Amino acid sequence: MGFMIKMGNRRFILFTLLLLLKCCLAWFVVFEDGPSWMTMLTEIPFLWVVFCMIEWFAKKRKLLYYTIANLLFTLLYFTVLMYFKYYGIIVTYHAISQADKVTEVGNSTYSLMDPYYLLVFIDIIVLLMIPVFMRKNSKKIQMNLKPISRTALSVVFGVSIALCFFSIWPNRASMNENKQAEEMGIINYEIYTIFADSTEDEAWTEMEDIDQPTIDSLKGVQPVANPQYFGADKGKNVIIIQMESFQDFLIGLNVGGVEVTPNLNKLAADNFHYRNFYTMVGQGTTSDAEFVVNTSMYVPKHEPATQNYVKKALPSLPKLLSNAGYNTATFHTNDVSFWNRTELYSAIGWDKYYDKSFFGGEDHVAFGASDEVLFAKSIDELKKMDESDKPFYAQLITMSSHHPYNIPEDKIRIDLPDEFDNTLVGRYIKSQNYSDYALGKFIDDLKSSGLWDDSIVLFYGDHQGLPVYSLDKKEKDLMQELLGHEYAYPDMFNIPLILHAPGVTYPSRIDKTGGQIDILPTVANLMGVSVANQLHFGQDLLNSGDDVLPMRHFLPTGSFITDSDVFVPGISYDDGTNFPLEYPQDPNGKATKQQYENALELLHLSDSYVNQLPDKEEK
């Protein structure tokens, strides 16, 4: 008690209390159980290490250094709050290195902010005003703060270092990053990730030990000697449409007696609709979807695929079809430099790309020209490509329904009940209704031009549109009313896959589980193009059974999807949680430990393979 009195009445305690309040706010938002008394034992020690160093080394302006430390820790907690609200995981320095993207998606970022989050900065504003007040006051404020004894500082420093160590060391083996952060403390976890990554020496599996039979075995794929539909649409065009933030629950959804997506409803009813199909993106979201679909590889662990993977000579669907005599092109109304798509498109091997410089800025929605402009200008280019003596592969990326779904008033084409006013769910439904309208006009153009009957046309969502972590209670209640059950991971990651293949597809609702990584081998099969010599981590959805889909970034490491569950590990497999794909829950459905181990091995093999690929040739 006497020791604490010696330490009391000082900046040391004041700033400890201020940061402890901010830490508790972060814990309330991020961790299900919120803060506890143990939170102090995990969060305070590192703060005290920094404060002891200020007391030791700062001879003057100690208040300034405390304020700077306070600002840096506050920014960290604030970033943790904001990142978790969209991504559902704890931010690390990997993601912070991509902070320049925040300026590009400012409205999306700001929409995640609850106003009370800004309260964490009030004390800093007050502290910065103190010197101004003191200069204006002729009578100086006497703080009478005597130096803390070096003995006391040494004891506090040593105990704090020990507490940091004992928070980190026993929890370093946890598979779940969110659990690690909760057990270690947020600040300790951030420091741990820096040192763990700097000392981690990934032992890649050698190239000669990575082969298709091994991958198929891990996924549970049984080889088919004579695959059904092989070459059924040989020589047809391929048109793949990636729908921004589009989730499967929208298909067939009626709100207020009105269909939300009438055009996609009709497409789903008339063609193959894979209703248990899942997004597999990471930090790069839309650009990651382009990567996964076109390479059949998993996204990297800590970064978007467009950061380092684009340096490699990537096997891809454009290259596969180009070798089969196809012209290839991709269409996106944003600037090609965003998310480093310039390098992505070069690595994937597109013959040509169309971006903002082609589509212009007319009818601006979100980050570029509207979906109506995308489709209207793209159809003209597709007609020109169709006049060539070669078939073509084209991918179109929609963007108007981008988070936070603030489409212009003149684009709103649906009236929703009053309870949807001023909600993210309401804005989402309105924006997707508009995107469906624009898509319907494009489908009409494909049909009138003759391209529809001469092309495989495939539609899928790029990633989730309504992160469960972003929804408030009212919005979660709205989703439960729409779905008939609590909105959870299986709904959030579930995107549609609708496949139109002339002479092959017919009205069919398919329950087979699949993911974006499966699109390449599925298209290759229809085109009669062999993938025997091109390593791929997906499987042909027309000729496969069960699937194991490892997930990254939006869920902790070790998470995966099976035909029955979304599995999320705890500290390990044994204390993990199964989220059923179907409601009510299938009592027999449960992800197995073998599937868990296979999912981790699949990610490791994909990482090993891509990192050992030769660098691409610069043109």
Automatic annotation (TrEMBL):
One of its GO terms (molecular function) is metal ion binding. It is found in: Cell membrane. The active site is at 286. Pathway: Cell wall biogenesis; lipoteichoic acid biosynthesis. It comes from the Bacteria. Keywords: Cell membrane, Manganese, Membrane, Metal-binding, Transmembrane, Transmembrane helix. CDD domains: LTA_synthase (cd16015). Mn(2+) binds at residues 244, 286, 462-463. GO terms for cellular component: plasma membrane. Residues 236-529 form the Sulfatase N-terminal domain. The keyword Signal does not apply. Substrate binds at residue 402. It is a multi-pass membrane protein. The chain crosses the membrane at residues 36-56, 63-84, 116-135, 147-169. Belongs to the LTA synthase family. This is LTA synthase family protein.
